[in-house]
């Protein structure tokens, strides 16, 4: 083993500019300008590395030797001392690593993928209401499955969907913490699920109207009001509530409505717009709605902003119906399956669903606009009472 402790304190002070070895990879570099610093040379995983240990004016010979031995011991254990020191610096510079702080940081990093940058609070709310009040101050590295189990147990069965969302967000937060270099248990949420057991909650789908009954309901929307017209266009297009409520007049070009990508649920590529073919009946409804246009929006609220989803739902509720506006998407999808020969991928595209595997979608460069145009025209004929009982056939 190379000799250690070659230098004396007197030599360290007296030597002129140059590089002087103290042994074991520890070197003293003295510069022409009078400055000097300690450098440790190491071989880490077969690579030569150098670590600065500080200026001579700040670090004595004794302190430099102690530091050098600490880092050499780490190399002997198979670790990279340079990366370890960088990790410690990051930890020291980072705010306290509580679950709340890491959750907020994770939320910030995901905002670009969330609708409206997450301003509605739907992503963070399950954590804010059901997890952070009890666990927010717990260091994320100390969080274990028993903590999570005790926190979510009161809502695990009673509010199963909310509990599921909270657990999902927790899993994302733990992965974020791991990406920051923190020593967390990435299996902690799965372990907590095992302790909590299978939820007894039965998922209830949004009630939908049988497609055979849609024409009768559609004809009942006879008043030229914002609510009636919005519901009619919702039924005719099969879109979700939000893009319909935020429909702008300038999104319509001829008989095509282009929904901006940021308004589409379930699309990771928020720059990808979606084209909706408009039937003759849909265009007629849009013309009836144009006098209500305010601020560019076709369906404004009576106060400010746009019509709410609850407004359309309350209309159906007042009529004693259990179905809700979103359910008309199911009505349309069932009609496509039972009364048309539309291929699966075309029918799914009508509902703006992403169909097929990643590879299949990469090679499929079409949105089936022309086939959907035929289907939506026949759907409009059905709901207006013009095409009852007819089977739609698409050209192959």
Automatic annotation (TrEMBL):
<dbReference type="InterPro" id="IPR050808">
    <property type="entry name" value="Phage_Integrase"/>
</dbReference>
<dbReference type="GO" id="GO:0003677">
    <property type="term" value="F:DNA binding"/>
</dbReference>
<comment type="similarity">
    <text>Belongs to the 'phage' integrase family.</text>
</comment>
<dbReference type="InterPro" id="IPR025166">
    <property type="entry name" value="Integrase_DNA_bind_dom"/>
</dbReference>
<keyword id="KW-0229">DNA integration</keyword>
<dbReference type="Pfam" id="PF00589">
    <property type="entry name" value="Phage_integrase"/>
</dbReference>
<dbReference type="InterPro" id="IPR013762">
    <property type="entry name" value="Integrase-like_cat_sf"/>
</dbReference>
<feature type="compositionally biased region" description="Basic and acidic residues">
    <location>
        <begin position="76"/>
        <end position="85"/>
    </location>
</feature>
<dbReference type="GO" id="GO:0015074">
    <property type="term" value="P:DNA integration"/>
</dbReference>
<feature type="domain" description="Tyr recombinase">
    <location>
        <begin position="204"/>
        <end position="376"/>
    </location>
</feature>
<dbReference type="InterPro" id="IPR011010">
    <property type="entry name" value="DNA_brk_join_enz"/>
</dbReference>
<dbReference type="GO" id="GO:0006310">
    <property type="term" value="P:DNA recombination"/>
</dbReference>
<dbReference type="InterPro" id="IPR053876">
    <property type="entry name" value="Phage_int_M"/>
</dbReference>
<keyword id="KW-0238">DNA-binding</keyword>
<keyword id="KW-0233">DNA recombination</keyword>
<protein>
    <submittedName>
        <fullName>Integrase</fullName>
    </submittedName>
</protein>
<dbReference type="InterPro" id="IPR038488">
    <property type="entry name" value="Integrase_DNA-bd_sf"/>
</dbReference>
<feature type="region of interest" description="Disordered">
    <location>
        <begin position="76"/>
        <end position="95"/>
    </location>
</feature>
<dbReference type="InterPro" id="IPR002104">
    <property type="entry name" value="Integrase_catalytic"/>
</dbReference>
<dbReference type="Pfam" id="PF13356">
    <property type="entry name" value="Arm-DNA-bind_3"/>
</dbReference>
<dbReference type="Pfam" id="PF22022">
    <property type="entry name" value="Phage_int_M"/>
</dbReference>
<dbReference type="InterPro" id="IPR010998">
    <property type="entry name" value="Integrase_recombinase_N"/>
</dbReference>
């Amino acid at each position: 083993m190379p000799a250690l402790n070659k230098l004396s304190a007197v030599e360290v002070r007296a030597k002129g500019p140059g590089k002087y070895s103290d042994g074991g990879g520890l070197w003293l570099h003295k510069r022409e300008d009078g400055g000097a610093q300690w450098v440790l040379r190491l071989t880490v995983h077969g690579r030569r590395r150098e670590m600065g240990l500080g200026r001579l004016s700040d670090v004595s010979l004794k302190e430099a030797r102690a530091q050098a031995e600490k880092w050499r011991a780490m190399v002997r254990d198979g670790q990279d001392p340079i990366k370890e020191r960088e990790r410690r610096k990051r930890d020291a510079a980072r705010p306290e690593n509580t679950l709340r702080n890491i959750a907020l940081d994770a939320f910030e990093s995901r905002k670009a993928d969330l609708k409206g940058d997450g301003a509605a609070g739907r992503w963070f709310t399950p954590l804010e209401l059901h997890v952070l009040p009890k666990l927010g101050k717990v260091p994320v590295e100390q969080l274990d499955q028993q903590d999570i189990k005790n926190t979510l147990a009161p809502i695990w069965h009673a509010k199963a969907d909310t509990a599921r969302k909270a657990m999902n967000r927790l899993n994302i937060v733990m992965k974020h913490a791991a990406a920051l270099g923190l020593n967390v248990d990435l299996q902690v949420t799965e372990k907590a699920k095992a302790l909590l057991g299978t939820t007894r909650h039965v998922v209830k789908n949004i009630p939908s109207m049988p497609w055979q009954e849609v024409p009768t309901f559609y004809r009942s929307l006879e008043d030229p009001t914002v609510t009636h017209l919005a519901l009619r266009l919702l039924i005719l297009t099969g879109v979700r509530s939000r893009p319909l409520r935020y429909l702008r007049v300038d999104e319509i070009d001829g008989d095509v409505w282009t929904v901006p990508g940021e308004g589409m649920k379930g699309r990771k590529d928020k720059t990808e717009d979606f084209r909706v073919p408009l039937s003759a009946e849909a265009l007629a409804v849009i013309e009836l709605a144009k006098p209500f246009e305010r601020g560019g929006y076709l369906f404004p609220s009576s106060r400010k902003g746009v019509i709410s989803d609850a407004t359309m739902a309350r209309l159906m509720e007042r009529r004693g119906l259990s179905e809700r506006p979103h359910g008309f998407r199911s009505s349309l999808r069932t009609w496509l399956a039972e009364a048309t020969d539309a291929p699966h991928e075309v029918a799914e595209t009508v509902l703006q669903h992403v169909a097929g595997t990643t590879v299949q979608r990469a090679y499929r460069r079409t949105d089936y606009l022309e086939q959907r145009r035929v289907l939506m025209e026949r759907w409009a004929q059905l709901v207006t009472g013009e095409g009852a009982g007819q089977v739609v056939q698409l050209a192959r």
